[in-house]
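REQUEST FORM: STRUCTURE PREDICTION
Request ID: SP-0412
Submitted by: Lab K.M.
Chain count: 1
Length (residues): 203
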Amino acid sequence: MTAVSKPRIRAIEITYVGMFAALMAIGANITSMAPFLQVAGVPLTMQTFFAVLAGLLLGSRLGAISMTVYMLIGLAGAPVFSGFEAGIAPIIGGTGGFILSFIATAYFAGKVVEYSNGAPSLITFMIAAFVGLFMNYFIGTNYMYFAYNFWLDVKMSYGAAWAVMAWFIVKDLAFTIFAALISPRIYRAVTRNSINQLSNKAS
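STATUS: Completed
RESULT:
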């Protein structure tokens, strides 16, 4: 039986993964210094935008890896989570589900793009972006509901959990559409750069 070789991550892909992990850290705290950009003590971040963009541009595998790296950096103690927080506390907190959801956000957005067989249209990017946004809100909001009611001892109805997120949806809808609109040209550049890297290595 022939062993199936696992796909290796190339240098350019490591660069992309690191770049999006860094962008997530920036997006998490870009509004933390402005109290008026907070809702119920939660800052309005650009993390969903960068998570969706990671999936659209890097694909399901690398997009999910970049979000996992971001989460692990925060768990290791670097203050990259929203509000410059770090460690396990933000994960088990009420909004910790959104940190976990970024992995699924990037993965499923990337999967939709990959179904286009290398020639995604603007419509494909738009659908992929909204699939990613759905995963972000579905996982994050449900986690928040269970966290508050089962281990944080803060009673919250399921409807109230979604009502809280209504404050954020307009911002995230706008950023999701923007991510889809700018992705086609960047995607072609990223793909072309990756092909050139492979060609140079082969030669």
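NOTES: The first strand starts at residue 38 and ends at 39.
Reviewed by: T.R.
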